[in-house]
Each structure stands twice: as structure tokens, then as C-alpha cells.
Write a structure and sequence with these properties.
about 230 residues; about 90% helix
């Protein structure tokens, strides 16, 4: 039971995507999962964003296998704001192109989005709704604001990760340096103790040598006196 629970926790995101794909296959009536069906059914809905979606899914599954929760959260924040930036940039390119080279109206938005940029039905429907309810100036200003905000949060997450890794590495280097200094101090203390022991040993040998010489000298003097008395 624990093995099954651990397996489900590790591959939970994969199971969620499989379930979503199964529901979509029923809704879109996909019976044969081939590249030809992908291009005929999925691509019209999502357009070129279908490939981005697939990359996002595989990347999300890959990072969900990582045990570092902070890494997962950082990645998902970066992924969300990167996708927002990508959508906003595509919308900005679409409305700018139509406004500069064509007349800004619903027909040109529809035609350009589907036939020129191949953005798909879902993106095109959203773009049409926005263009029919808001003016070009408002849409352009809001899109630029979203681009700046999403780019900022995409970059700030990278900066946070970089600072976090840099701080971790600097702490490791600092810890190694402290260990090196501690080891050097221990070696210096040990060398000082060895030198003190060697000095004491030399002094002891010298004192012993002096004591032996004095004893020999006293013994010689004693013998000499005895010989004189005789």
C-alpha cells in the first residue's frame, strides 16, 4: 500500500494530464491518436500554441518528479508568467500588424490570426472579443503593461533562484574556509606543542648531561683525595 501511495505521489501530475487528455479525447472525438489527427483536430483549436502546450506539459511532468518543493514552485511561477508573456506578445504582434498594414476591424483580426499567424480558434475568439469591446489604444497599452509585468516576474524568479544558489554556494565556500582556518589553527597548535615538547626534551637531556658530568667530577675529586691521603 505504501509503495502504491509513493508511486501515485511521484507521478500524480502525469496521471492528472492523462485524465485531462482522456476527457479531451472524448470531447473532441479523437479515436486514432496519430500525428495526422493531431494536426487536424488539436492544431485548429490551439494553433501554434499546441506545440508550446506540449512542451509545457512535458516540462511540468519532468519538474514534478523533482523532490525539491522550492524548485517546483519557482519553475511553475516562471512557467505561468512566461506563458502569459508569450500570449501577450502574440496578441501585441497581431493587433499591431492589423493596425499598421490593414484596417483594425474584426474581419482582419480573424483572417490574420487564423490564416497568417495560425494562432488557432481559441486565441482568435479571445482576440476578437477584446477587439470588439475595446479600442486599439486601450488594448495596446494594457498589452504592453502585461508584457512588462510578466517579463518582470519571469526574470525575478530567475534572479531569486540565482541569488539563492549563489548564497548557498557562498555559504558552502565560507564553511569550507572556516573549516580550513580551524584545521590550520589546530595544526599550528599541534606544531607549537611539538616544538615545546622538543624544547623541554632537549632541556631535560642537557640537564641530565650536566648532572652526570657533575657526578663524575665529584667522583673523580673524591678518588683523588683518597689517593693523596695515602
Amino acid at each position: 500500500m505504501k509503495i502504491l501511495k509513493s508511486f501515485f505521489e511521484n507521478f500524480r501530475v502525469l496521471f492528472i494530464y492523462i485524465f485531462i487528455f482522456f476527457i479531451l479525447s472524448i470531447f473532441l472525438k479523437i479515436n486514432d491518436f496519430s500525428l495526422d489527427n493531431f494536426s487536424k483536430i488539436i492544431f485548429p483549436y490551439f494553433g501554434i500554441f499546441a506545440y508550446v502546450l506540449l512542451i509545457d506539459i512535458f516540462s511540468d511532468i519532468y519538474f514534478s518528479l523533482k523532490k525539491d518543493k522550492i524548485l517546483q514552485m519557482t519553475y511553475r511561477i516562471r512557467l505561468i508568467f512566461f506563458n502569459i508573456f508569450l500570449l501577450a506578445l502574440s496578441f501585441f504582434i497581431l493587433i499591431s500588424y492589423v493596425n499598421v498594414f490593414l484596417e483594425f476591424n474584426s474581419f482582419n483580426i480573424l483572417f490574420t490570426s487564423l490564416n497568417f499567424f495560425h494562432f488557432g480558434y481559441m486565441f482568435t475568439e479571445t482576440a476578437l472579443y477584446l477587439c470588439e469591446n475595446f479600442s486599439y489604444i486601450i488594448l495596446n497599452s494594457l498589452t504592453i503593461l502585461i508584457l512588462i509585468i510578466s517579463l518582470f516576474f519571469s526574470i525575478i524568479s530567475i534572479i531569486i533562484t540565482t541569488v539563492r544558489n549563489s548564497k548557498k554556494n557562498s555559504n558552502k565556500i565560507k564553511s569550507l574556509e572556516e573549516k580550513k582556518i580551524t584545521l590550520q589553527n589546530k595544526i599550528a597548535i599541534k606544531e607549537a606543542l611539538i616544538k615545546d615538547e622538543q624544547r623541554e626534551f632537549k632541556n631535560y637531556e642537557k640537564a641530565q648531561d650536566i648532572a652526570i658530568r657533575e657526578q663524575l667530577q665529584r667522583a673523580r675529586n673524591k678518588n683523588f683525595r683518597r689517593q693523596v691521603k695515602r
